[in-house]
Q: What sequence folds into this?
């Protein structure tokens, strides 16, 4: 019988034979619009990735947020300028509209049961918002004005399985859905 050490060595050896494509990685992804970003990071939950380009002279960052999703669900990504939680975040939500087109818009996450309605304005400028659905993944594109000239922010990201009457419904409050927050440095 193999010792625990021998078994562990065998598993590591076996894992080294797997193709690198088995692991999630943002670096090799090609967007359908051929957009290229200088930086990307695989977020630790929900299989999501964030791509970005910072324009220091304009004090903006162009982002693409990508996450797996069915055509019946929704995704969102945003920044919280004041806290490390969902409440207070200013996000961009995307989903497949009942007319068959992808929609994306900014929204305020002002409670644990936000309306998910479009927001007239956020505390930072948001431009060039769009979304697409490609290969069972939803992708949000936007350009953000960086709050106060900073580069490091609290971020949140999320996915939900239901859109009803063109309104995203509550996401799960278990597992990775409650862990989907962190920081991002656009430096």
A:
């Amino acid at each position: 019988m193999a010792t625990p050490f021998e078994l562990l060595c065998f598993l590591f050896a076996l894992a080294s034979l797997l193709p690198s494509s088995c692991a999630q990685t943002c670096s090799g992804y090609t967007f359908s619009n051929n957009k290229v970003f200088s930086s990307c990071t695989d977020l630790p939950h929900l299989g999501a990735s964030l791509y970005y380009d910072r324009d220091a002279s304009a004090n903006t960052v162009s982002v693409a947020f990508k996450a797996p999703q069915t055509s019946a669900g929704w995704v969102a990504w945003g920044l919280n300028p004041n806290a490390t939680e969902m409440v207070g975040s200013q996000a961009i939500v995307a989903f497949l509209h009942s007319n068959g087109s992808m929609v994306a818009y900014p929204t305020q996450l002002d409670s644990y049961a936000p309306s998910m309605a479009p927001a007239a304005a956020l505390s930072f400028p948001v431009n060039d918002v769009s979304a697409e659905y490609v290969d069972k993944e939803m992708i949000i594109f936007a350009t953000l004005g960086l709050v106060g000239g900073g580069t490091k922010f609290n971020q949140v990201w999320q996915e939900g399985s239901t859109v009803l009457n063109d309104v995203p419904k509550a996401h799960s409050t278990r597992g990775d859905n409650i862990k989907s927050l962190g920081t991002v440095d656009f430096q």
Notes: The radius of gyration is 18 Å.
